[in-house]
């Protein structure tokens, strides 16, 4: 068999999409770099950033054919499971920032939280968190914030299709903990929802835990643990046409 034919077969084997369950503590770019090492392929990209503290579904394209099709995936709607802490705020709107006490009314009722959540259903204007990767004047917002020169982005229109409590809120250490399932459009910051929900209730709010459970028709049940790909990715790779066919 000619050498060129062997090379083409190997390239084909390493082209497609990986559905990965991103672990906490890694950036989405860290995952991309890990996949590059596993595959030896430099053309690798992902279809939607997850914050380092977050876990869940990350779609990674491997090879030219897959990375060319990323634009067909980045605009898909997303679903998340999140734990919000209400009655405290964070400099980063998540559990990794400095936590500040911003107490709620001690007599806050569950019905008031449910009513406040309804304000976020539909198309809303949302101001991205100060610690985000959005560029303003050529500088990423989180870089400016770390330098002590925080920037504020303009409000963006996003759509929240549904936001539902998984269970009744609980009170711990003078804060309210609530687990939610959120279905939203691309570009939505779950951290901003927590922040704004806390404000709507007269205090503060931030995200303690966040897990992405779906991107469009693709679900976390289809995802592979990142470390399981060490031994080879061929069986986990979804051909480009197969992944795009449900869209």
Summarize the structure.
InterPro entries: PsdUridine_synth_cat_dom_sf (IPR020103), PsdUridine_synth_N (IPR002501), tRNA_psdUridine_synth_TruB (IPR014780), TruB_C (IPR032819). Helix content is 23%, strand content 32%. It has 247 residues and is of the alpha+beta class.
Highlighted features:
7 helices; Pseudouridine synthase; alpha+beta; 247 residues; two-stranded antiparallel ribbon; 2 domains; eleven-stranded mixed β-sheet
Structural features, described:
This protein is an alpha+beta fold and 247 residues long. The protein has helices at residues 3-13, 28-39, 64-67, 110-118, 141-146, 190-200, 240-244; strands at 16-22, 44-46, 55-62, 78-86, 88-90, 99-101, 122-126, 135-136, 139-140, 156-165, 170-172, 175-184, 205-215, 218-219, 224-225. It folds into two domains: 3-75 and 216-244, Pseudouridine synthase; 78-214, Pseudouridine synthase. It is 23% helix and 32% strand. The strands form three sheets. Strands 1, 2, 3, 4, 7, 10, 11, 12, 13, 14 and 15 form an eleven-stranded mixed beta sheet that branches. Strand 13 (205-215) and strand 14 form a beta hairpin. The chain starts with a helix and ends with a helix. It holds the Pfam family TruB_N. It is an enzyme of class 5 (isomerase). Its EC number is 5.4.99.25. One of its GO terms (biological process) is tRNA pseudouridine synthesis.
Write the SSE topology.
Elements: H1 3-13, E1 16-22, H2 28-39, E2 44-46, E3 55-62, H3 64-67, E4 78-86, E5 88-90, E6 99-101, H4 110-118, E7 122-126, E8 135-136, E9 139-140, H5 141-146, E10 156-165, E11 170-172, E12 175-184, H6 190-200, E13 205-215, E14 218-219, E15 224-225, H7 240-244
Parallel strand pairs: 1-15, 3-13
Antiparallel strand pairs: 1-3, 2-3, 4-12, 4-13, 5-6, 7-10, 8-9, 10-12, 11-12, 13-14
């Amino acid at each position: 068999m000619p050498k060129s034919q062997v090379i083409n077969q190997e390239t084909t084997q390493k082209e497609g999409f990986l559905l990965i369950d991103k672990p906490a503590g890694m950036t989405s770019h860290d995952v991309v770099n890990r996949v590059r090492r596993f595959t030896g392929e430099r053309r690798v990209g992902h279809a939607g950033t997850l914050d380092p503290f977050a876990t869940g579904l990350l779609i990674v394209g491997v090879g030219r054919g897959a990375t060319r099709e990323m634009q067909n995936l980045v605009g898909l709607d997303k679903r998340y499971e999140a734990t919000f802490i209400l009655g405290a705020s964070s400099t980063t709107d998540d559990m990794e920032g400095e936590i500040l006490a911003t107490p709620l009314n001690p007599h806050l009722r569950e019905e008031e939280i449910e009513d406040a959540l309804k304000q976020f259903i539909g198309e809303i204007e949302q101001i991205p968190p100060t610690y985000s990767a959005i560029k303003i004047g050529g500088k990423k917002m989180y870089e400016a914030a770390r330098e002590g020169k925080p920037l504020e982005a303009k409000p963006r229109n996003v759509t929240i299709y549904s936001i539902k409590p998984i269970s009744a809120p609980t009170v711990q250490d003078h804060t309210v903990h609530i687990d939610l399932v959120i279905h939203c459009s691309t570009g939505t910051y779950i951290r901003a929802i927590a922040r704004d929900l806390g404000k709507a209730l007269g205090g503060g709010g931030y995200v303690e835990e966040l897990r992405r459970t779906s991107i469009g028709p693709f679900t976390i049940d289809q995802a592979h643990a990142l470390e399981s790909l060490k031994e080879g990715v061929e069986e986990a790779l979804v051909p480009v046409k197969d992944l795009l066919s449900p869209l």
